[in-house]
């Protein structure tokens, strides 16, 4: 198989997993190699061009509603049996899951994912990724697709780590993983269109995540 994770040594995985366990998050640069990155980005732009994104919602089940004052992104839910152009990306996500299960004993069973587009001027206010009454999400993962991002473009991910706040730049090919249940975070206002693939690694098989936001 043709992805760069194949060349990652066990020591490196142990470092990443330790960092996730100890700090509640880890940032890995160049997680996607160039060809995978190009594939995801062009798929993204095609779906956006065909108007296949919907405004994202807030909350689970009956609580699900749209609220542009809280989050302004548009999403396209991915389905590995439909979005075959992204098969190599799903393979990489499954490899990541295998490693986390092996080195972190996390017991991840499945994942759900979507593409997210934040138009210029939008944000996602501070929140945690587990909804009340639904705790299937173990780890949140975001892969950024923002070519040429530079300071001043905005759209950083802000993590609230106890008394400290950490700003993460949404750089192309970078992945951020964090514990879904403990880490409040927000997306700062973006001053350019902002592109990402967001996923949640799940304790139990995926169910209706696409309905739940
Ligand atoms: O795109 C990001 O950096 C974070 C997105 C997020 O928090 C979410 O979709 O729940
Ligand atoms: Fe989130």
TrEMBL record:
Domain of life of the native organism: Bacteria
Cofactor(s) annotated in UniProt: L-ascorbate
Gene3D superfamilies xref list: q2cbj1_9rhob like domain (2.60.120.620)
Protein's UniProt keywords contain Metal-binding: yes
Keywords in alphabetical order: Dioxygenase, Iron, Metal-binding, Oxidoreductase, Vitamin C
Transmembrane segments: none
Positions of the Fe2OG dioxygenase domain: 110-203
Keyword Cell inner membrane: no
Signal peptide: none
PANTHER family (alphabetical): EGL NINE HOMOLOG-RELATED, HIF PROLYL HYDROXYLASE, ISOFORM C
Listed name of the protein: SM-20
Lineage, broadest ranks: Bacteria, Pseudomonadati, Bacteroidota, Cytophagia, Cytophagales
């Amino acid at each position: 198989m043709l992805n760069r994770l194949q060349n990652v040594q066990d020591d490196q995985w142990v470092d990443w997993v330790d960092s996730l366990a100890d700090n509640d998050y880890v940032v890995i640069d160049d997680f996607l190699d160039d060809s995978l990155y190009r594939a995801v980005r062009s798929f993204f732009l095609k779906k956006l061009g065909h108007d296949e994104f919907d405004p994202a919602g807030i909350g689970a089940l009956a609580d699900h509603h749209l609220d542009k004052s809280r989050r302004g992104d548009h999403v396209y839910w991915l389905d590995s049996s439909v979005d075959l152009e992204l098969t190599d990306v799903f393979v990489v996500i499954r490899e990541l899951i295998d490693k986390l299960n092996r080195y972190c004993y996390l017991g991840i069973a499945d994942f759900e994912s979507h593409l997210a587009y934040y138009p210029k001027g939008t944000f996602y206010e501070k929140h945690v990724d587990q909804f009340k009454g639904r705790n299937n999400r173990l780890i949140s993962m975001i892969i950024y697709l923002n070519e040429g991002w530079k300071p001043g473009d905005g759209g950083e991910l802000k993590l609230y780590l106890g008394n400290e706040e950490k700003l993460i730049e949404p750089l192309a090919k970078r992945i951020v993983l964090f514990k879904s249940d403990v880490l409040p975070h927000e997306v700062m206002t973006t001053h350019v269109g902002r592109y990402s693939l967001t996923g949640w690694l799940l304790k139990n098989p995926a169910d209706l995540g696409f309905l739940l936001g």
